[in-house]
Amino acid sequence: MTERNATESTTPARNRLKTAASARWNDERSAEMWGRYADDVTQHDDRQAWEAIITDVVGEEPQQVLDVGTGAGFLAGLYAGVGHDVVGCDFSESMLDQARERAARDGFEATFTAGDAEALPFEDASFDVVTNRVLIWSLAHPGVAVREWHRVLRPGGQVVLFGNHPEDPTRSVGERAIRRLYGLALRVRRDGAATNLDDRTQREWNDAKTDLPFRHAPPSKIQALFDAAGFHETRVLDVAEEFDQWRTVGPWNERVPWHVVTGHKPD
């Protein structure tokens, strides 16, 4: 297992971040909200766009894929849908319950297991692809996590990170406000009851997340982190047009600048 080193702080403040994140994502109401979000996306035309980009980046040959921070199984289901063998890993049992329910309901095969993105419970060189979606911003020790992803990849394997840069300076204040309003709408149950966390958990998470080292990180910063971890042929793909999911799902047709950051473990 890769050890943390002096290049990345493990101060009490960073540990507090991790504790707050654990409480945030283990909350059942949070898991239910993200489960509904996954339903919204996968039941619209954007599913085809996601699957097309996955195939373009990873290829059509079946791969052994690890979805780190799988959450409600959104990305795992997409990879499985185009023929890959998928393991989804998350430290939230509530999220894993949502993922297993989704797999059973939607009829895709994937294995879901508990695990920490910064200390993965897998042997070296276990997977062909390590992937995740908007995970890195929520990590207390992103450098540690990326080195772990490198460790569990086979030589020649690929890391594939899907993300967006929500505070892109090219977007107007109005656009950003609309996205926040839509995010609030997603936090409302279908029966009208709010899905908000309890006050203490929400307050601790709000206080902690402002210190997350990769919060609002642009893709160039993620690419540099991949380079530092030993990945080769790193690149950033602008897939805003292909992945314009909020235009399809969001009631205000807002555009979000989706990107893919990739890199390969040397042979």
UniProtKB/TrEMBL annotation:
Residues 66-160 form the Methyltransferase type domain. It is an enzyme of class 2 (transferase). Its EC number is 2.1.1.-. Gene3D superfamilies: Vaccinia Virus protein VP39. Residues 1-22 are annotated as: Disordered. One of its GO terms (molecular function) is methyltransferase activity. One of its GO terms (biological process) is methylation. Keywords: Methyltransferase, Transferase. The keyword rRNA processing does not apply. It comes from the Archaea. CDD domains: AdoMet_MTases. Signal peptide: none annotated. PANTHER family: 2-METHOXY-6-POLYPRENYL-1,4-BENZOQUINOL METHYLASE, MITOCHONDRIAL, METHYLTRANSFERASE. This is Class I SAM-dependent methyltransferase.
